[in-house]
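Researcher: Before we compare anything, I want clean individual predictions. No alignment, no superposition, just each chain on its own. First chain goes here; please echo the sequence and then give the structure tokens.
Model: Echoing the first chain and its structure:
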Amino acid sequence: MLPSVCRHAKAGDEPCRIGVDHHRDRKTGPAFAIAVLECRTHGQFFTLYPLGHYPYGRAAAAPVAPDGEPLYSHADGQPPSLAWETTLFAPVFALAEGPKPGPADPGAWWATEPPDRLALPAAVLGLQVAERLGDAIAEQLGIARLELHQADRDYRAARGPAAHARVLLAVLSRLPPDRCLLDRLVGSGALAGCWGSVERWDRGRHEARRRLFPGRGMPDG
């Protein structure tokens, strides 16, 4: 299902003529090749990512399927919970649990310096960013500004990877698990400069919907 309008279209232009130029395999991110599209009207190429993913991402931004439906984990004896382990927030949950007993696994989250693993999740949630960006991200995420400011102070004061991860978990817990979750996280990441501008193309509810999440200096996808 291709978009009918490209990002470069302006009022008065001829209709966009969009087609698939080729498919690009990925070592990370979606488990299938993604389409690189060409708008022959404007002579522009762009990548069509499935819902949940963002430009050049190694993991999804939100636990949703390619059709936008929420993804849940079903652990034995536990109620279903959002599958955050499939997203860029997976290190947050792993670090919050602390290191496992026994020999260290060199491929585990604890084998890498925690700031390297938590920098992206923290920025997407509006922590350790400029104050003016924090206010905009709080509004984008639907979290009270004072609550996000307090979380930012707690994060800066935290000591150790588990403590940092628990602050991030507390912020995640404030996000309503509804169909707007993807828009909240993709938009906040764009505001924080974690990725370039993203345009959402949604053809549900029998009508097309475009929404632009402008980025800050990162390459567009």
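Researcher: Okay. Second chain, same rules.
Model: Second chain and its structure:
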Amino acid sequence: MNQHCRDNQMALCYAGGRTATIQMMANSLERLTRKRTDLVQAWRDAGKTDEAWSPIDELDKVIDSQEKILLELEANP
């Protein structure tokens, strides 16, 4: 196998791994967003206390961080 073929195979492996990583992160963000929706509903049901909102704030930080990473991955092939 010549170097050109090996280079192409490596590029395909990289692209496949990158695509899988992006899809995994998108799926993870979808799950986190559903979890946030559930937490907001629980907060509403619990009387809308500041204490009950704290886990939502923490989850928002995680979601924001993951979204930034995903956007960077999508923007920089």
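Researcher: What stands out in the second chain?
Model: Residues 29 and 63 are 7 Å apart (CA to CA). Additionally, The chain has one domain: 3-75.
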